[in-house]
Design brief:
Radius of gyration: 19 Å
Shape: globular
Distance between the termini: 56 Å
Number of domains: 2
Number of strands: 0
Number of helices: 12
Largest sheet: none
Length: 238
């Protein structure tokens, strides 16, 4: 055990260790996901997070140390988000023809997401700081954290809730849409993107390109709508 600890202390000084850990966890989670017939309840992101947390907890590694090594993956989020424009460009004519319906659905989705989270937290007698931290739960993390901080919430709590929302949306969103008999790929994509941002969009892209394109569009527009509407509603209510 002592030798293993010494080896780990040596390896932990290399930033490549945590990058390798991140990639290995996702590759393993993806293998499990495909092996079990792509069961939505075994979302690779969820499995990866669990595996990495267990390793960090077991080795006593703090998050700052882990992030220092794995920040290259964080950097790639930018190009990956920009790349969502490619499938969206291929669906441009369909987006243009449905522009009004898209804008109305995203506005309704944005309001519904924020108001339901605030209402449930308020009924459960949550503190105001917790309520405002929950409100932007369906927005992509950087925007959600900025909104939360501006309104007096806890950005760290918001980040956790956003990730959980994305994972749950990716896991259960397609199942719920199937139960509701919603078959149109554009509608499914809009619903997933509005409710569960980037993680849901990644899931939508795996299933269908049209769904992925509309999910990416919904993710971006929902972030914009929430950033505009939520501060107005919050100041009105509180």
């Amino acid at each position: 055990m002592g030798e293993f600890r010494d080896i780990w202390v040596y390896l932990s000084t290399s930033p490549l260790l945590h990058l390798t850990l991140t990639l290995a966890a996702f590759v393993f989670a993806s293998m499990v996901y495909r092996k079990l017939h792509m069961n939505p309840l075994l979302n690779p992101v969820l499995l990866s997070v669990i595996a990495i947390v267990l390793v960090l907890k077991g080795t006593g590694t703090d998050y700052d140390t882990f992030f220092e090594g794995a920040q290259f993956v964080h950097f790639l989020l930018g190009p990956a988000t920009v790349a969502l424009a490619v499938p969206l460009y291929r669906q441009f004519d369909r987006v243009r023809k449905s522009a009004l319906a898209i804008l109305l659905s995203i506005a309704c989705g944005s309001l519904t997401s924020a108001l339901t989270a605030v209402s449930i937290a308020w009924m459960l007698d949550a503190r105001v700081v917790s309520i405002v931290s929950l409100a932007p739960k369906s927005v992509t993390a950087p925007v959600a954290m900025g909104i939360s901080e501006q309104l007096g919430g806890l950005p760290s709590l918001t980040a956790v809730i956003v990730i959980l929302t994305g994972v749950i949306g990716a896991m259960l969103g397609p199942l719920i849409l199937n139960v509701l008999n919603i078959r149109d790929w554009a509608a499914r994509g809009l619903a997933i993107g509005t409710a569960s941002h980037g993680i849901g969009t990644a899931r939508a892209l795996q299933v269908n390109e049209v769904a992925g394109a509309f999910s990416g569009l919904a993710m971006g527009l929902n972030a914009l709508a929430t950033a505009i509407l939520l501060p107005v509603i919050w100041n009105f209510l509180f």
